[in-house]
Amino acid sequence: MLTFRRGLNSIALELYGCDNKEQLIGSNPWAFSPPLQPDGMASKEKGMQFILKALNGQPQRFYWLHCKLNDKSQLLHVEVSLNAFEAGDKTFVLAVVRDITGRMKMIEALQNLEKQYKTLVETSLQSICIFQDNKIVYINPFAVEMTGYTEEEVYAMTIEDFCSFIHPNDLKQALDKFDMKRKDTYKLECRLRIKSGEYRWFRSLLKHFIYNEHLAMLVTSIDITEQKKARNQIITSAMLAEDQERKRLATELHDGLGQMLTAISLHLGTFKNIETLDEKTQTNYYTAMKMIKQAMDENRSISHNLMPKAIADYGYVSAVEHLIDDLQSFSSLALEFYTNLTEERLPEHLERNLYRITQEAVNNIVRHSHAASGVVQLMKYPDLLILTIEDDGQGFDTQATSKTDHLGLQSIKTRSEAIGGVLAIDSQPGNGTCITLQISLTDE
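Below the sequence we write its predicted structure tokens.
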């Protein structure tokens, strides 16, 4: 029979809740164990297996669940080492028992915490992905649902596969943010093609961290497509309202003030024998006629700037050519215009906003750049429209300008966003300025 015999120390008595050695001597090991161990095996059966192996000369070390002598519900997590030794003609087994209850409770608490975090992640209405070693190593159910792919398809993807779904106009900034050498936390807004082929806008937060002892990148994302559509609709409506008001004012200036000035000029022109008047009266007359003509020219110029008739009648190309011709009449700036558009017309809202962007940029060159020359270029490709406006002027600090919210640049940014364009402004003090606007012509 296997029983506790001798060598019991005070720590063993305290561990099992005994007052003296007699309470343990003569008892078998499973008398201080629950009926079943955590794996579901009977304590006696499992304990005998370990003891028999130790008696056969195989030292044993294992986890065991004990309990107090007088309170079977108070469980003890222990680590047990068994080694057999000979004493006279008998074989004994030395058991060294180490209480690891505190450690096991800590592990259990961590496991419970991990389960709680996993539950939060698994039920989150945010897309959560972890990239590591050029592949996706974790993706939560909501992210799988958002992409339209199956979980198996997602886990088979590499980072290169994932990046191939990013819209071409957003790819450069996305690749820069995906650089695993960066250690900071940063935000990214880009369009991602889901399985249906539709591009959706996502706002993401990217963070590098250590995952399973290796560097990884955590990406949490929300779908902001509807927000983008709503914002673009508001901006488009505001731009349309502004252009309609410009058109109304231009019409009133032309049909109201313009006609009145013309009538005044005609009436004054009917005066006869001006030469017979005294010198002062003649001077006043000719001055009045000159001022009326200047007022008519200014009225015509303001009306044209508010809403160039060439946009509605002939399109962007003709309007820009007219704009440049007007500038050449009073400015020494050598401004050239290139385009591969001939008689082809763009959608009205696109032409209108492109012209306003071009007009604002060109006016900025004339007023602020001190440039000797500049170029406006509009190139149309099968799926892309690219507008480039550059000059050789003094340039400026784009960061400083953005902080002061420069109205001209803000207008360019707002109109670019209204037509779904990707705007880049490249400028440095002393190095001129280049404005590039890319507009996708594909359905998204």
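DSSP finds 14 helices and 13 strands in the chain.
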